[in-house]
Design goal:
alpha/beta; two-stranded antiparallel sheet; 23% helix; His_PPase_superfam; His_Pase_superF_clade-1; Serine/threonine-protein phosphatase PGAM5, mitochondrial; hydrolase; Mito_Ser/Thr_phosphatase
């Protein structure tokens, strides 16, 4: 594992340092905007006409400005040339599954277990992925699954696993995949910058451990699958970051319980979204968003 700054990446010995790591800036300081000649701004917390000035929310400022595409977003552009000279590099299929419905009445994670309906959702999702994986590719295509460390995600992964192909490798649990506030939100009320920084540092590290282009493989594999069982906010953030779209839009995306979000990362570094929050495998009676049933909420 190679660490660049605060972020961990699956690594090669040589990794190009130009990464699409987000930088944070106050919203009022637009990128490239001219700085007006004005009086020195009052500090956060200063009283203005009897009111206390709130902190400015910090938003991401990508190294390559939107809407341009950073071709070296994962620092592995050099692997593209290697793939031309040697064995092929596989396409990465990344399948993000939100956990099933769970008991939200307790703040104790150990008691926040899946409901009976949530368990049925998890089993149905395992059957769905098994059918898709059996119909796709060769019987020896590599499949891996991991989850967050929160009870509802671990239970969902455990219920899915028996229904997945026997070759599926369980990578264990990663606390970086736990739920949180991955970015400020637009539109919406600003979160504490300190809270966002803490959650983002963790979730961004999880993003980089999952999303990257593969290098050439001596076994000649053309595809590999990564199944990640985690949480709604994390999945929303992953989808936007992978597509190099502003992550502050995460609350505009909706991921139902045991929905499937599916992205593909090509050896070239291109990324495409094939499904977002798909629940086509769940019958209406198993369709929930948290404790809300159906669509009318």
């Amino acid at each position: 594992m190679l660490r660049l700054g605060r972020y961990a990446m699956p690594g090669a010995a040589a990794v190009v340092a130009h990464l699409s790591l987000p930088r944070r800036r106050p919203r009022c300081e637009a990128a490239g905007a001219p700085v007006a000649a004005a009086a020195e701004p009052l500090p956060v917390g200063a009283k203005v006409e009897g009111k206390v000035r709130k902190e400015r929310p910090e938003y991401f400022d990508p190294i390559v400005p939107y809407p341009e595409w950073d071709g070296n977003w994962d620092g592995r552009l050099h692997l593209r040339q290697k793939s031309k000279d040697g064995p092929p590099a596989p396409t990465r299929h990344i399948i993000l599954v939100r956990h099933g419905q769970y008991d939200e009445s307790s703040k104790d994670d150990e008691r926040r277990v899946l409901t009976g309906l949530g368990r049925d959702q998890a089993v149905a999702t395992g059957h769905k992925l098994r059918a898709v994986l059996d119909a796709s590719g060769s019987p020896d295509t590599e499949i891996r699954i991991r989850s967050s460390t929160l009870t509802r995600a671990k239970e969902t992964a455990a219920l899915m696993l028996p229904h997945l192909p026997d070759r599926t490798e369980h990578l264990g649990c990663d606390p970086n995949l736990n739920e949180g506030r991955p970015a400020q939100v637009i539109p919406g009320k600003a979160y504490s910058n300190a809270v966002v920084r803490a959650d983002n540092d963790r979730i961004e590290e999880a993003f980089r451990s999952v999303f990257y282009r593969s290098g050439p493989r001596e076994d000649g594999a053309l595809h590999e699958y990564e199944i990640v069982v985690c949480h709604g906010n994390v999945i929303r953030y992953f989808a936007l970051r992978a597509l190099q779209l502003p992550p502050e839009a995460w609350l505009r995306l909706c991921t139902f319980n045991c929905s499937v979000t599916y992205l593909v990362v090509r050896p070239s570094g291109s990324v495409s979204l094939r499904a977002l929050g798909d629940i086509g495998h769940l019958p209406p009676e198993l369709t929930t968003f948290s404790m809300h049933h159906g669509l009318e909420w």
